[in-house]
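Dear colleague,

Thank you for sharing your sequence with our group. We've completed the structure prediction you requested, and as agreed, I am returning the results in plain text so they can be pasted directly into your records. Please verify that the sequence below matches your submission; if there's any discrepancy, let me know and we will rerun it promptly.
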Amino acid sequence: MRAVSPLMVTRGLLTEWVVSSVPSDVNRAVTMKSPPSMTGYSNPALAAAGRKSEIAFSASDDERSSLSRRSIPAAKRYAVAAGHVGRPEDAPHLSALVRFIALLQPVALNDDETWSAYATFANLPLHEIKRLLDALARAGVLFRRGQTYRLSPDVLADYLIEDRCVAFDGSSTGYAEQVFDIIDDRLKGQLLINLARLDWRRKNGDVGESRLLDGVWAKLNPSNEPWDPQLDAVADIAFYQPRRCLDFVERKVAEDNITPKLARICKYAAYNLDHLERALELLWELGRDDTTLQNSNTEHAIRILKELTEPEPKKPLAYIEGVVDFGLQLAKEKDAWSHHANPLDFLSGVLCTEGHETEPDRRQLIFRPFFINPEGIRPLRERVLALIFFFSPTQTRQSGRRPPRRFRSP
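Please find the predicted structure tokens below.
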């Protein structure tokens, strides 16, 4: 068991910590440092796309942006347009199909409901759509991951979505809204995720004034059912669109329309420092009167608050300090001690002396325990301990204060 150095906690970048905490699609988008191998492609145009993608991922940000817009997509588009994939007359249909796939991926090739909807949308028979899908898969334009398929490389999908969905002023062209109307709820969430991720990348994380998602967001109508895929999608894009998603949570809370997944939305939005305080306030409002057991409910808002307070490898000390500051400020409010939960229920997370990381590895989940080096976290612990001592029996007797219910003797 290793010890976490205070320097690791203090110097760790928020992004490095977030990639181990956010949904798998977000994790893959942030941590991917090299594209899938292209060496197995027999088509020279596709192999060239692979070589150019390797150059793009080793280039600077500006160079990568330029290459991703020109070289990689150009090589792939050349492969389609020149007839290297399918028949020469298939080029316009294949071009339209890969843009549809880019917006919805990952896709299942045996999903007849989706491809029937697209066949109607594209005014083509279903058997022709399946033939085109087979041609893309055989050429390596689609690669298999589990039971679904994605475009290769991933940067190609971003280009295709931007080319078809983003207008000159950054708003939507209306294509995404058209696709949204013809697909079922299973894929509506995936469309929202892919579009939100592209918007986040285009804006370098500053999506506050972006209007790209306005049309699709207006069509979104998630229910309160825990299995609703649209509600899952809102949670999955909270890292990319924190302001929009926190607005959604606030509206649900104001309507007294509470579901457990609202806390998960706030959790992912809280990974953005600019929206941390607002997310913490909503988590407190969602969890302060929740009487369900925290250890059996991973979406309990107070449990999430405590997890955000706990020191972890690569989690910035400034981030933990932000959560502690919120809790200590909350403790000054008299109303904070009149609920089922109180601020110390999550502030106690900063006092933990050990923890563990989890890492999925194909068919197994690896647990890596670690100890917390107390020196780096000592100032924050002292502030929380001061609050606990403030309500100790000796201090309350001397001052005449009435301690909160949790601190009273039976």
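Summary note from our side: Residues 5-13, 25-72, 77-83, 395-401 have pLDDT under 50 and may be disordered.

Kind regards,
the structure core
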